[in-house]
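Appendix B. Chain record.
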Amino acid sequence: MTEELLSLPVPSVPAADRGVAWLRAGVVRFSNGAEHERRRALTAKLIPDVTTLDDLATALHLPGSLGDIATIAPCYQPHEPITAEADAAVERLASRHDEETAARIGLLVQAWAATHALAKRLEAGDPAPPVPITRRVAREGVIEVGLESHPFGHGAHACPGRELGIRIAKNMAFRAMHHQDEPLVLPNAWDYASAAALHAAGFKAIGTTSLGVAAAHGIPDGMGLAGSQAVALATLLKELPCPVTVDLESGFGMDPAELVSTLDAAGVNLEDGRPHGLATPQEQAMIISRVKESAPGVFLNARVDTHWQGLAIEETEERAKRYVDAGADGIFVPGLTEPRDIEKLAALAPLNVLAQRRTPKELGDLGVRRISTGSLLFRAALQHTVATARAVRDGGVPEALSYDEVQALVSRGTRSDAG
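Structure tokens predicted for this chain:
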């Protein structure tokens, strides 16, 4: 029944020459028929490949406009009252009062509203769509149609910027997860099924593990040999309805800036470790700077491998400072366990450590913002696999997910294009 209701026309809006009323009358969102098709095609052509709202505004030739957009957004829907401030904001942005200008402003207004709403839901682990209702014209007049059981951008008026909105919202939500009261506990998956199972278990974001990805394909970890496998997994995981961060080792021998710009991920890990030692801090800082220039919305977690190389905390701190100055959004120091060292590095940027004997609260009290499982889950899965096989051989009673439970994990229902 909802599908039939969504096929009905949207309420018409009156023509206008200025302000919010002009904007409503000129955008695809509030039009029908041939006018809708024409405006939809125009809007689709305007959608750029960006990772932040600021970059979207710049690409739409509306730089520095997000303050005005935030003023317009609460008045954008036809049932909402228009304020004088919103009318003035539209006029500041409207260099011309034509259909393309309306499309640019309307696209940014809708992107601003949808991404902020969706990001808040992702932060809270709420699967509900960012737009809970829509309005349609039926025989009895204008009716409200609930969208709780439908994905973002669904229906005859499906949002042409849906993928862009989801990408920006995931980036915003993932960044915010590093600035909450409790540390983000980030489990690391090695394939689609493990990632889907972890998300279904309530984890708000998922990372990948380089050891798990490499070993699952019979490739040694840390040698830069599993690049195609890591990228293929990242491509699969972008369909999950949660932020995903990808372990890229040191770039797998590719240009890290180009590699990150091709991924649809909310975050990446880049390490200064190399197959036969460490990069110089100057070299790694330059790489980080270039990555942030190419994908500013992606959360770059700069891994410092000095602890695993047996170097002093002073070297770790110096590298961390350089990487943060170069644009890194967070610092990851595997092997870091000493409380004083944790507190010192946590003062520089959101600090990521591996899971350890301390509880998330204890680590949070030391300043840690993110706790990764690293390769732990993959190694535990291997151990449990062997233990289960032994139980079968020796007459034990193995425990496992059911066939139907696994099928459910990989069904279209777990993916962002289905809700």
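Further analysis of this model is presented in Appendix C.
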